[in-house]
Amino acid sequence: MELHAELEAHIDRWRGYVQRRQAISPADVEELEDHLREQVADLQATGLDDEEAFLVAIKRLGNLDAVSREFAREHSDRLWKQLVLVPEDSSDAAAPRRELAVVLALAVGAGLAVKAGLTWIGDGEVLARNLGLLVFPFLAAYFAWKRRLTGQVATALLVPFAALAVLLNVYPFAAGGSTEVLAALHAPVVLWLLAGVAYVGGRWRSDGRRMDFVRFTGELAIYYTLLALGGAVLVGLTFAVLQVVGADLEPVLEDWILPFAVPGALVVAAWLVEAKQNVVENIAPVLTRVFLPLTIVMLLAHLAVLTAAGGLVDVDRDLLILMDAILVLVLALLLYAISARDSLAPPGLFDVLQLVLVVAALAVDAVMLTAMLTRIAEFGFSPNKIAALGLNLLLLVHLVRAAWLTVGFLRRRRPFNDLERWQTRYLPVYGAWAAIVVVVFPVVFDFA
To answer: Which UniProt keywords apply (predicted)?
Structure first.
């Protein structure tokens, strides 16, 4: 069913409203949306236009609480029955424990895979190329179990994963060469977008689903950071206690704790995001409001550092790499801020701050592009320079369009959904560029 952009915007707004209901899980939101789309298609077939069909379909869905109760009666094997209807004994009471068991098993599996890689691969450079490949299957397996992926979607994930694994291990990289480092850095980007396909249940073409994945990524970073900080405190206290009695925990930390904790925490953090979505949704707007102005100040300070660094040819290479990392971080914050915002709310102060952030990032990106082009003209091409130049050009296009759409929204000439759609539809471009760096660059630059 081919839907017009305005109708898709209506459905995205409705979906955002439904997602804010505490009793409705992501899987059930998908089922509600499918039901809504079927209703719209049936009504369009009778001759109604998009807006009329949408309004009538919403009316047929009825009051959301009533719909929730109806779903609860039809799906008694879900948590719906406990959350929406009067609590009663149900076999579904074991579902949370079953999911926790699956998560812990996958977390341990990820740890075992990394530990095996450390033991059998040995070579640090080869391990760096394969680290994402060792962890990705367990995270994707959780999403596949959670979303009940079809065989077709699973195959669509398995083929590029297998191809990436083969190339990363068959290519005759020069030891410590630039293309090997670039491949190790960009392969996780490709894997993360593949994980996104698993997260959205294969419905990657949906703007709403992709924005869900953006929101999930931001929330995952929050939970993973909290787990890492908590784990660091516990390990530090344990170290302190054991040092008093003369025991050395460092070999155990390096050989066992870190290989299991670092990848395992990623799977556990993904489960926590799924289980505690409403809690994080309350935190997300607060975090974006705190970090947006702070990031603007940081960017302006970095812009001052770049302009004061002297001739653009003499700008330190490490500084350019660091600024690229900062721009990626700024982009991640921008995406998370957009995903955490209520799309129905009118323009406000933080939308203005968001525009200031984008303009500051554009200024930094423009200075960096000038510096990179100057260095290429002076010293010639290299894999690192071309990879960095390509990333900065992608960021430039992304930020320019984002600034334009934000201005249109602030002037009330464009809906906020236009800005959301641009962010999500541009994400695959980064994945395509990462794939080019991994697959094409080694061949073009003779694996150097």
So the answer is: Membrane, Transmembrane, Transmembrane helix
Per-residue pLDDT band at 125 (split at 50, 70, 90)? confident
Q: Which is nearest to 445 in space by CA: 181, 66, 105?
A: 181
Mean pLDDT of the chain: 81
Tell me the pLDDT band of 61, cut-offs 50, 70 and 90.
Answer: low
Among the residues of 308-382, which ranges form H helices?
317-340, 349-379
Task: Kindly calculate the radius of gyration of the chain based on its CA atoms and give it in whole angstroms.
Answer: 24
Dist CA 70 CA 81 (whole Å): 10
Asked whether 352 and 372 are in contact (CB, 8 A), the reply is no
- Tokens coding 275: 């289980």
Provide the whole-model pTM: 0.76
State what percent of residues in the chain have pLDDT above 90: 32
Give the CA distances from residue 334 to residues 226, 407, 415, in Å, rounded to whole numbers and listed in that order. 21, 15, 17
CA distance 207 to 417: 10
- At how many degrees (to 10) do helices 317-340 and 349-379 cross? 150
- Name the token pair of 424: 């999500």
Which tokens in the block code for residue 220?
């995952």
Summarised one tens digit per residue, pLDDT across range 93-113 is 567 788 889 999 999 999 999
Spatial distance between the Cα atoms of 4 and 7, rounded to a whole number of angstroms: 5
Q: Give the contacts of 74 (CB within 8 A, at least 6 positions apart).
A: none
Neighbour tally for 205: CB within 10 Å: 9
pLDDT at res. 126 = 84
Rounded distance between C-alpha atoms, residue 153 and residue 194, angstroms = 11
What gap in Å lies between CA 330 and CA 358, rounded to an integer?
9
Tell the burial category of 65 from Cβ atoms under 10 Å away from its Cβ (0-12, 13-18, 19+).
exposed
